[in-house]
């Protein structure tokens, strides 16, 4: 059998740190990878002779680390993902073209990110202080040693000054949900993220207090209004030993925007927007789908930018819609009707009817129907009930700073199956 296409992947850029892996050995990576792909045995670590390739794929690029030693694999993969993060922040899109257009900058970055096989500065904000994207500026900028190199904190520079000292805290929770056709919740969890925008002078020490269940039980407080967080991951600035000892989230923050932490909550979430759909088939191949949407969150909250994607058979034609609120449109390339509601108050119920022709009603029954998916955002509200209890900001100059907190709940992978 002939393949429908053959692709030859070339090495775009290679930085040799130790001189023990030659370019000729790098050339073996792609053929071995493609052979594995054909055999259906793709492995994140490929060996050829004495060389081990540890690789990840990002859009149309392979980022490959080569080593002859028994290296710490998790460190190598962390570095490769960090490299993707840094290059994405530099070039917005990391793809073949952006690497080709910025060879000089990529080489500069590879030199700064690692030295003789050991990761060095991997924070893009700090790198941007002395590796700029205009090629001609590179030499000038390099004369100045970034303050972070001489500093105990690699992610923050000395001498940052603001007229008004503020911290903005966003607590964003995404709800993942799968509901069966008979209305049972099959899967539900919450993925949370605490994002900060820090506009503070000097070298501030921050402490964040949450209604964390483990902390509450350590200090003998009532566990009633607390939240059990799992899979907690922190930005490198957080002192992990402090958190492990007494659940204190203590850190010197980077300047500007960053994600401080992420967490997951395994909870049976009541579906915030409940959808029911009924399909009626008429003679002469006419079909009507009736969809009912109900806001099952508290009345004082409002869901914004609600999109309800209702699958329709691929051969549907001439759709007509009636909605009690919002607007509906047919997107034939995705085989869905999208019902958009700008603001959806809690406790309210809305209806949409879609009426269309189907050349073959039987075909639809054989196919089975994909689930209805919903997108939404509810400000000033978290599903888990997580709360920022305090944010303490201590800086040796003794200034007062204001913390601002926002809560947002949004849809993650939010699906409701329907009866075919």
Automatic annotation (TrEMBL):
This is AP-1 complex subunit mu-2. GO terms for cellular component: clathrin adaptor complex; clathrin-coated vesicle membrane; trans-Golgi network. It holds the Pfam family Clat_adaptor_s. Signal peptide: none annotated. The keyword Membrane applies. InterPro entries: Adaptor_comp_med_subunit, AP2_Mu_C_sf, AP_mu_sigma_su, Clathrin_mu, Clathrin_mu_CS, Longin-like_dom_sf, MHD. Subunit of clathrin-associated adaptor protein complex 1 that plays a role in protein sorting in the trans-Golgi network (TGN) and endosomes. The AP complexes mediate the recruitment of clathrin to membranes and the recognition of sorting signals within the cytosolic tails of transmembrane cargo molecules. It is found in: Cytoplasmic vesicle, Clathrin-coated vesicle membrane; Golgi apparatus. It is a peripheral membrane protein. Belongs to the adaptor complexes medium subunit family. Keywords: Cytoplasmic vesicle, Golgi apparatus, Membrane, Phosphoprotein, Protein transport, Transport. The keyword Membrane applies. One of its GO terms (biological process) is intracellular protein transport. PROSITE patterns: CLAT_ADAPTOR_M_1, CLAT_ADAPTOR_M_2, MHD. Residues 164-417 form the MHD domain.
């Amino acid at each position: 059998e002939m393949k429908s296409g053959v692709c030859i992947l070339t090495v775009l850029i290679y930085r040799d740190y130790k001189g023990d892996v030659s370019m000729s050995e790098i050339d073996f990576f792609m053929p071995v990878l493609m052979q594995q792909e054909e055999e259906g045995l793709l492995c994140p670590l490929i060996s050829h002779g004495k060389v081990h390739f540890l690789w990840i794929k990002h859009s149309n690029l392979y980022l490959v680390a080569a080593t002859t030693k028994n290296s710490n694999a998790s460190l190598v993969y962390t570095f490769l993902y960090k490299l993707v993060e840094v290059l994405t922040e530099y070039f917005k899109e990391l793809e073949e073209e952006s690497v080709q257009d910025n060879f000089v900058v990529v080489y500069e970055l590879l030199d700064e990110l690692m030295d003789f096989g050991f990761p060095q500065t991997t924070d893009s904000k700090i790198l941007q202080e002395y590796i700029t994207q205009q090629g001609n500026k590179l030499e000038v900028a390099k004369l100045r040693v970034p303050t972070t190199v001489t500093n105990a904190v690699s992610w923050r520079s000395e001498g940052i000054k603001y007229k008004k000292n503020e911290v903005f805290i966003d607590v964003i929770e995404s709800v993942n949900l799968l509901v069966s056709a008979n209305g049972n919740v099959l899967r539900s969890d919450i993925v949370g993220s605490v994002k900060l925008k820090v506009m503070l002078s000097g070298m501030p020490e921050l402490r964040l207090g949450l209604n964390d269940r483990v902390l509450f039980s350590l200090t003998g407080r009532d566990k009633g209004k607390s939240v059990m967080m799992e899979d907690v991951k922190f930005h490198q600035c957080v002192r992990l030993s402090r958190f492990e000892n007494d659940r204190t989230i203590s850190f010197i923050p980077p300047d500007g925007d960053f994600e401080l932490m992420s967490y997951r909550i395994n909870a049976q979430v009541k579906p915030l927007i409940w959808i029911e759909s009924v399909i009626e088939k008429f003679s002469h191949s006419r079909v009507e789908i009736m969809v009912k949407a109900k806001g099952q969150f508290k009345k004082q909250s409002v869901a914004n930018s609600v999109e309800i994607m209702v699958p329709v058979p691929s051969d549907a034609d001439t759709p007509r819609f009636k909605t009690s609120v919002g607007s509906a449109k047919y997107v034939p390339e995705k085989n869905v009707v999208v019902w958009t509601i700008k603001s959806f108050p809690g406790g309210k119920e809305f209806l949409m009817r879609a009426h269309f022709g189907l050349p073959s009603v039987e075909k639809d029954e054989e196919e089975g129907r994909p689930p209805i998916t919903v997108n939404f955002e509810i400000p000033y509200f978290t599903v888990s009930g997580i709360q920022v209890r305090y944010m303490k900001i201590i800086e040796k100059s003794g200034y007062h700073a204001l913390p601002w907190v926002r809560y947002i709940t949004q849809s993650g992978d939010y699906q409701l199956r329907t009866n075919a």
